[in-house]
Amino acid sequence: MVVTTEKERESGTGTRYIDCFRGVDLRRTSISCCCWGIQILSGTGLRIYSTYFYKQAGLPIEQAFTMSIVQYALGIVGVFVAWILLPWFGRRTIYLWGLAILAVLLLVIGGLGVAESRSPPPADSSGGSGLAWSIGSMLIVHTFFYDVTVGPVCYSLVAEIPSVRLRSKSIVLARMTYNIFNIISNIITPYMLNPSAWNWGAKAGFFYGGTCVLSLIYTTFCIPEPSGRTYAELSTLFQRKVSARSFAKTHVDLAEARALDRDYPKND
């Protein structure tokens, strides 16, 4: 670890943040930033305010809190499942399938929210209506699939996509992007759920379902598959301007990769 840290320090010597936006590094930096931003766009706001969300969906406060505990417990299980899937499936594949599933679940939540707003209140609301429980269940399932796919895989992509010499700076910029998106989400989500504000309730699923679909489209055309590639191979593919969808099937000769990759001296 000490040797690795020293080599990374040496490789980053003389670099500036502006270098992250020059040449092929602009593409690599933007992908890293978007990967982290997609975590928020995939519906993190609803998961963060899950207890309040469940309550506004129609569940009693005690049941809403219990659902939140179950939600986070399943999230932990989801991360363990991701550990098993990552060696067998590519990062891009898991990301794509994850976003597709999350988008469907969010749109279903929004649809159930519309149905709930149009249905008469139950005679006995002490246990919550069937629609309220359905909405809560969808968010729990959403959390599980998030923690199997987009949640943990993002960290792998953010670390693998940047060039070696700019990795630390690219990760800083990517995390800043995440924080900006998160601040915006934390501001607008309470307005969505609050009955005295926008009063969207579960219909907020349509908003995050839409941003999730946009994230899916971006991932399809812009996020490549780094799994099984060396950093030299990745740099060569980016320098060749290979499309994201062609990364996995494009052959790279190792000698050519080391000759073209500026992260590695040509005479070593």
From TrEMBL:
Gene Ontology terms: cellular component: membrane
Keywords of the record: Membrane, Transmembrane, Transmembrane helix
Homology family: Belongs to the major facilitator superfamily. Sugar transporter (TC 2.A.1.1) family.
Keyword Methyltransferase: no
Membrane-spanning intervals of the chain: 69-89, 96-115, 135-158, 170-193, 205-223
Main location: membrane
Pfam families: Sugar_tr (PF00083)
Stored InterPro entries: MFS_dom, MFS_sugar_transport-like, MFS_Sugar_Transporters, MFS_trans_sf
A GO term for molecular function: carbohydrate:proton symporter activity
Membrane topology value: Multi-pass membrane protein
Subcellular location: Membrane
UniProt KW Transmembrane keyword: yes
Major facilitator superfamily (MFS) profile domain residues: 1-227
Highest taxon listed in the record's lineage: Eukaryota
PROSITE patterns linked to this entry: MFS (PS50850)
Organism: Penicillium fimorum
Name of the protein: Major facilitator superfamily (MFS) profile domain-containing protein
